[in-house]
């Protein structure tokens, strides 16, 4: 296996209008929850969690720190890096499975917190795949000349929808937010090259939050059943995650006119190191080509790739001209992939 991407410039199929990622930001809450902390809550061990998932720690938001608060902190960091003012933002898309409330959209709370008074705001519901679904929507609005500047947010307070008595799920998730600002810049040659999104509702019940909607409202009678928390069939999700992410990777690469050999860095959904290892193995590229932070933050669902993108960006991992593949998977089922030139 080669450890470096192909160096000769490939023939890339670029979209009609440039869509650059002009700034990224992220926010992680202060409180660190370790595997040892969890072993005091449920029957588990650091060894079990580490070998099955690669997760060592995750962050947990404060009681009065909501999804929109974390999103707004990440948004301000991205705006500063992009040198974009609040007034310039035309659209805020916020992907989440743990909104502040069912309505209004959490994006509207963020709008007020950052003063983006000219923006239209909506939430995107595609579970862990939501950030790249929102990137695709942003790209469509920009390439169609509808908007110039779109803020794409992935933000989650999963600790608020976690069953802290269920060892099958509570060891996996964490809180946080990540943001990318997408903008048309007439002089830019780099940016989003291809996107792909997909879904399969036939498997909706292997990863879901069954209660709290109109189908099963939470009542005094069912309140003890933890219906308003994440339910998951781990083994089924694992298999679907690997096959869907492999297929999605191929689709975005084909659309871009690239092969995996051209990719300098893969930023995958941060659910589990074993899933990432399986994908690296099947794509036949070394693991060091992947950006991984799931060991520190656990699975932050829609926020995961957004946080990883910001960390990869700020740490200097992404070099100008690099081709980057982002690929995600989530409840729904949903999956998505994006190829960008940095
Ligand atoms: N600590 C100790 N034991 C645990 C545990 C924990 N935190 N969670 C589950 N177990 C037990 C189970 O009760 C089960 O015990 P049993 O066999 O006595 O019934 C056993 O461990 C299951 O072990 P194993 O078969 O080795 O689990 P696994 O290899 O399938 O790993 C997951 C479990 C959840 C880590 C794995 O299935 C997975 O990663 N799935 C995908 C999850 C995911 O990424 N979800 C989000 C996608 S967006």
In short:
31% of the residues lie in helices and 23% in strands. It is of the alpha/beta class and 342 residues long. The site of coenzyme A (COA) has 21 residues, from helix 2, helix 6, helix 7 and strand 12.
Description:
- By secondary structure, the protein is of the alpha/beta class.
- It has helices at residues 35-39, 46-53, 67-82, 106-114, 130-143, 167-170, 234-256, 273-283, 294-297, 304-314, and strands at residues 20-27, 31-34, 57-60, 91-95, 120-124, 149-157, 175-183, 191-199, 207-208, 231-232, 263-268, 323-330, 334-341.
- The chain has a 5-stranded mixed beta sheet, sandwiched between helices.
- α3 crosses α4 (106-114) and α7 (234-256) packs across α8 (273-283).
- The longest helix has 23 residues, at 234-256.
- The protein starts with 19 loop residues before the first strand and ends with a strand.
Topology of helices and strands:
Blueprint: E1 20-27, E2 31-34, H1 35-39, H2 46-53, E3 57-60, H3 67-82, E4 91-95, H4 106-114, E5 120-124, H5 130-143, E6 149-157, H6 167-170, E7 175-183, E8 191-199, E9 207-208, E10 231-232, H7 234-256, E11 263-268, H8 273-283, H9 294-297, H10 304-314, E12 323-330, E13 334-341
Parallel strand pairs: 4-5, 4-6, 11-12
Antiparallel strand pairs: 1-7, 2-3, 6-7, 8-13, 9-10, 12-13
Helix pairs in contact: 3-4, 7-8
Question: How many discrete structural domains?
Answer: 1
- What sequence of helices (H) and strands (E) makes up the elements? EEHHEHEHEHEHEEEEHEHHHEE
Distance between the termini: 24 Å
Question: Could you tell me the number of beta strands?
Answer: 13
Global geometry: globular
The ligands found in this model are: coenzyme A
Helix and strand composition category: alpha/beta
Q: Tally the helices: what do you get?
A: 10
Spans where pLDDT lies below 50 across 5 or more residues: none
What do we call the CATH homologous superfamily?
A: Thiolase/Chalcone synthase
Beta-strand share of residues: 15-25%
